[in-house]
Write a structure and sequence with these properties.
The complex is a heterodimer of chains A (261) and B (775). By secondary structure, chain A is mainly beta. Chain A has a single domain, classed as Lipoprotein localisation LolA/LolB/LppX (outer membrane lipoprotein receptor (LolB), chain A), CATH 2.50.20. Helices cover 14% and strands 48% of the residues of chain A. Chain A has five helices and 13 strands. Chain A is globular, with a radius of gyration of 19 Å. Chain B is an alpha+beta fold and 775 residues long. Chain B folds into four domains: 214 residues, Multidrug efflux transporter AcrB transmembrane fold, CATH 1.20.1640; 131 residues, no CATH class; 192 residues, Multidrug efflux transporter AcrB transmembrane domain (Multidrug efflux transporter AcrB transmembrane fold); 139 residues, 2-Layer Sandwich (Alpha-Beta Plaits). Chain B has 25 helices and ten strands. In chain B, the strands form three sheets. A four-stranded antiparallel β-sheet of chain B has the order 2-5-1-6, sandwiched between helices. A four-stranded antiparallel β-sheet of chain B has the order 8-9-7-10, sandwiched between helices. A two-stranded antiparallel sheet of chain B has the order 3-4. Chain B starts with a helix and ends with a helix. In chain B, 50% of the residues are buried. The chains are: A mainly beta (261), B alpha+beta (775). At the A-B interface, strand 6 of A face strand 4 and helix 18 of B. Strand 6 of chain A pairs parallel with strand 4 of chain B, so a sheet runs across the interface.
Chain lengths: 261, 775
């Protein structure tokens, strides 16, 4: 799982917008990937309210509304996740504090119905994202593409009305689950708008689409909706960013006292 | 000569050419034939039992479980653990496998002073004595005892969950099962390792069907060739009837593929028995042709005479045989209906080719050098024997009829002991891996037949209500208290386990918490912690949940008692609840539904075949009495068949319910041949005793070869991989023996006791009285 990763992911999505626009016409595939990497490095702090929606192959949905607080001072990554909806889990909170120097990770959980916080530990299924079928890397980890893939630039295309670079990427790792990844990157802001993952049989297995790009107060664009769909199983994970804000978060949110409140 | 006969004899090349083209077209479809061994396929899709099951599959995923059972003296040794580990890893890597749960990779929910932890049972494969000892203690103290390992450490189980496939699933599922089978085979010995589960049963059954087809088809063809050669002593005597049946098999199997009917344990019998049945027409036609040639007629003349004489009996016997199979359309069981329809088509196709192809081919062939005079002499002993038999029957008619009636009564009495069986497991041989694997699981881990109880609250998140979960707990406790039922499990177990872990692991907290909020939050935690498997216990919206339990593999009669108890409990307990619908679903329900309908299906197909066949004979022979007499040997045959099944404990199942109708459809042919000849002789002025002696010798000879072909043809089914088909084979061979014997004993007996001409057409009957009076 990842309590940690969910907000890392959300922040990735939010921060993907902060890019430097360059004279990019002559960029090679790998250079485009490098830009993505540089431009979306995870830093900073902020809050966000999101809908995390999982949808099964019949189109039935489970909707969770969450508020995320995050603070990263370079040494400690702190994060608080608070459930707002549905009603029966309202007030459930997860706090995680990750020491990047010692790699020590502490997590606490507060279940209001049971009345007090618990420390949770143990092995997490490292690569799965919140009980969905998607790995963290697939759903949000733009930063690792340039390390993990060799990209070839194909002819530019328009995607959903945006001018895009199109990349065909081959994994460097022989044990990768994918034979090929195809990515559409919005030229103006260097934001990946669609990523297709092909399995070892060459079938399209998963697809990530970012949409509802809106200009934020700081002038950068940010997708407000991210949909990861499993093309073979017919399931989807949808993240809707309802509100976001990159103002500094007060330290009091990352305390036992707030957790219990 | 009829226009049909003239056309055939004048245009042999056109007929053979057209038949060849159509045959090639049908043959082109055959490679696409599919196999299906699913029990659900036995029941019509719109049956409520199937609908309930499909709904449950939609909500909770496939009911099929695949389990790899491993047994040895002690599984806690480095070698065996390594095997389990490698099996787990290899199977996990297969495309289409969602999850593999083994004693080595299972997670434990553990509580610590601080909170809860979900930890793997071991970090690495235990190999040293110390590691193994630690591991043994850890797993034997967990809730996995009885599920993944046995308390005595002699057996382990690996549970495989497959990805939910879309509608095109079957092919993938089969390929996957084949791969797992291959992996498992490479690890067998000294440990016993078997795969258990419906998917594997299907896989095994399909292989077995395939190998049955490859072995039994050539065998039955070989037998036919042998009999044809013995009968005719010439290549054409062998080739023409053989070509006829092969063409009709090609047409029928081609039609089967076009109609999308798969080979099942029932329909797979069709091509094999069609070879045996379809040859009869050709044999009779050739027999007659050689008889005519022997009289010194020209080829054309002999053929005209053969067709004029034989078209009637060939059409009549084919119609009655076809009717016997077609009567199976009244059955409830889908593959039986398909089998009946297809075989009826095949029989008529064989008739059609016998009337078209054989004469056409004979026109094009040179006259044989000799007419097998020696052959006729060679079988003189047979003719003599049959004559003696006929004379004896005529002399002791009353005794014969009386003895037959007594025999019939004795066997009918036995028929009251008939049992019913719809459990597919009983269709397999004792030494098949299916039965062996099932036995291990039954011995070590309890049942292998899954039964489910669906709790439907009718509203979103309804099963998070503690009230509902507590009812599920009660139901589980009830299920576990029943004999032959074990392993009841549901979402309620997970909730209790989580609640306990979140409360310091204290025993008293192994219970459903009091508020819905607590339930929801515990489940949320579980999912966030990476816990999985909830989807197979509860619907996506949490409006429905399922309680699963396993029942020991037993006969469907025993199973019925258990299911009745469970349904009674559910009825009693939840009947009054407005907002909770509780339903029992699963394969056992399918079995019981099948079993429920066996008797009705048997009666309807039996009555239909007797009535149709009787009416066809009566109409074609122009005498109701002839219809009745032709049926009598079959009443005896069917009565003895059911009696034998009753006395020897062979149950009525999907395959054996077909025997009666088939026996009537085919068996009546003997009666028809006998009666036809007898009527001819009487009309020609022979006395009853003379007519019986002549008929027994001539028609009797045809009956002998016909019956021999069928007895041997059906008899080879005993080499099948399926116990059900093996039993079917010898029972139906037995009915062929009885009905042919009966037509040579009971019929002459009865005929002797009636006025000579009573059985003739009306116009001859009246003639008879004048004739009698005049003399």
């Amino acid at each position: 799982m990842s309590l940690k990763k969910i907000s890392v992911m959300v922040l990735t999505v939010m921060l993907l917008g902060s890019v430097i626009v360059g004279a990019a016409d002559e960029l090679t595939g790998d250079e485009i990937l490098d830009r993505l990497k540089d431009d979306s490095t995870l830093t900073g702090s902020g809050t966000a309210i999101i809908n995390l929606i999982t949808e099964n192959e019949k189109g039935e949905q489970r909707v969770n509304k969450l508020k995320i607080y995050r603070k990263d001072d370079g040494k400690l990554e702190k994060q608080l996740l608070e459930y707002l909806e549905p009603a029966d889990v309202k007030g459930t909170k997860f706090l995680s504090i990750n020491n990047t120097e010692t790699d020590e990770n502490q997590m606490w959980l507060f279940l209001p119905a049971l009345g007090r916080e618990r420390r949770i530990a143990g092995h997490m299924t490292e690569d799965k994202f919140m009980g969905t079928d998607f790995t963290y890397d697939e759903i949000g980890g733009g930063q690792s593409y340039s390390d993990d893939y060799q990209a070839k630039r194909l002819a530019d295309e328009e995607f959903a009305g945006y001018n895009c670079y199109v990349l065909e990427m081959i994994p460097e790792d022989k044990d990768s689950d994918y034979s090929k990844v195809k990515m559409w990157v919005w030229q103006d802001e260097m934001i990946p708008l669609q990523i297709e993952f092909y399995n070892l049989d060459g079938q399209l297995s998963k697809k990530l689409v970012s949409s509802e790009l809106e200009k934020e107060d700081d002038g950068d664009y940010m997708p407000h909706k991210v949909v990861m769909s499993d093309e073979l199983a017919g399931t989807k994970t949808i993240i809707e960013i309802l509100e976001s804000n990159d103002e500094e978060v007060n330290d009091q949110y990352f305390t036992m006292r707030y957790l219990r409140r | 000569m009829s226009r049909f006969n003239k056309f055939v004899l004048d245009n042999p090349k056109i007929i053979i050419g057209v038949l060849a083209i159509i045959t090639i077209i049908f043959a082109a479809f055959i490679p696409q034939i599919s196999f299906d061994a699913d029990m659900e396929q036995m029941i019509p899709d719109d049956d409520p039992v199937i609908k309930d099951l499909e709904e449950a599959i939609e909500d909770f995923g496939s009911q099929d479980f695949l389990m790899i059972a491993l047994r040895s003296d002690n599984i806690f040794n480095a070698g065996t653990l390594k095997k389990i580990d490698e099996l787990t890893n290899k199977i996990e890597k297969l495309d289409g496998v969602k999850k593999v749960m083994s004693p080595l990779n299972v997670d434990l929910i553990e509580s610590s002073v601080m909170g809860i932890e979900i930890n793997p049972i071991v970090d690495k494969l235990p190999q040293t004595e110390e590691e193994i000892d630690k591991y043994r203690q850890r797993i034997l103290n967990s809730s996995n005892v009885g599920k993944l390992v046995t308390a005595d450490g002699k057996a382990a189980a690996i549970m495989v969950t497959m990805e939910p496939f879309g509608d095109l699933s079957t092919q993938k599922m089969k390929a996957l099962t084949a791969k797992i089978d291959k992996i498992v085979n490479s690890y067998r010995d000294p440990e016993e390792i078997y795969i258990v589960g419906d998917t594997y049963v299907g896989h095994y059954a399909e292989n077995a069907m395939g190998s049955d087809m490859r072995v039994l088809m050539p065998l039955v063809v070989l037998i036919l060739v042998g009999i044809l050669y013995w009968s005719f002593h010439s290549a054409r005597g062998v080739l023409l009837p053989l070509a006829t049946v092969i063409i009709s098999v090609i047409w029928t199997v081609g039609l089967m593929v076009i109609l999308g009917i798969p080979l099942t344990i029932v329909t797979m019998v069709m091509p094999i028995i069609l070879v045996a049945i379809g040859s009869a027409d050709g044999i009779h036609i050739l027999n007659k042709y050689y008889e005519e040639l022997a009289l010194g007629r020209s080829k054309r003349k002999a053929l005209e005479e053969t067709m004029r004489e034989m078209n009637g009996p060939v059409i009549m016997t084919s119609l009655t045989t076809g009717a016997g199979f077609a009567a199976l359309i009244t059955s409830f069981v889908t593959p039986i209906r398909q089998f009946g329809l297809l075989t009826a088509f095949g029989v008529l196709a064989a008739m059609f080719f016998s009337l078209l192809f054989i004469p056409a081919a004979l026109v094009l062939q040179k006259l044989p050098a000799h007419f097998n005079e020696e052959t006729r002499e060679h079988k003189e002993w047979l003719v003599k024997g049959l004559t003696v038999l006929g004379k004896f029957m005529a002399k002791h008619a009353k005794v014969i009829v009386g003895v037959s009636a007594v025999i019939l009564l004795i066997f009918i009495f036995g028929a009251f002991n008939l049992s019913l069986e719809s459990n597919m497991m009983n269709y397999f041989e004792e030494d098949s891996p299916i039965v062996k694997g099932t036995d291990i699981v039954e011995d070590e881990f309890g049942g292998t037949i899954q039964v489910s109880i669906v709790f439907d609250t009718g509203k979103k998140d309804g099963v998070k209500e503690p009230v509902v979960l507590k009812k599920m707990v009660e139901t589980q406790e009830y299920l576990n208290s029943l004999p032959h039922v074990s392993q009841a499990s549901s979402l309620a177990d997970l909730v209790r386990e989580l609640n306990q872990a979140l409360n310091m692991g204290e025993e008293e907290y192994y219970r459903i918490p009091d508020t819905r909020q607590a339930v929801a939050q515990e489940l949320l935690l579980f999912t966030m912690q990476g816990g999985s498997g909830i989807d197979s216990m509860v619907s996506y919206n949490f409006d429905k949940a399922i309680v699963n339990a396993r029942i020991e593999n037993m006969g469907s009669g025993e199973l019925e008692k258990v299911i009745d108890k469970i349904e009674g409990y559910v009825e009693n307990k939840f009947a009054g609840e407005d907002d909770l619908e509780v339903k029992v679903v699963g394969l056992p329900k399918v079995m019981l539904r099948l079993m429920d309908r066996f008797v009705a299906s048997q009666i309807s197909s039996l009555v239909t075949s007797v009535v149709t066949v009787g009416i066809i004979v009566a109409l074609l022979m122009g005498s109701w009495l002839a219809g009745l007499v032709s049926i009598l040997p079959l009443v005896l045959t069917v009565g003895i068949n059911f009696g034998i099944m009753g006395y020897s404990g062979i149950p009525l199942d999907a395959v054996t319910t077909m025997i009666a109708s088939i026996a009537i459809g085919i068996g009546v042919d003997y009666s028809i041949h006998y009666l036809s000849r007898y009527r001819n002789e009487i009309r020609n002025g022979k006395s009853q005793d003379e007519a019986i002696a002549i008929t027994s010798a001539t028609a009797g000879r045809g009956i002998f070869f016909n019956a021999l072909t069928l007895i041997l043809g059906f008899g080879i089914l005993i080499f099948s991989h399926f116990r059900a088909i093996d039993v079917f084979g010898y029972l139906i061979a037995l009915t062929m023996l009885i009905s042919s014997l009966a037509s040579l004993t009971v019929i002459p007996g009865i005929l002797r006791l009636m006025p000579a001409r009573a059985i003739l057409r009306k116009k001859y009957r009246e003639l008879d009285y004048e004739y009698v009076e005049a003399n």
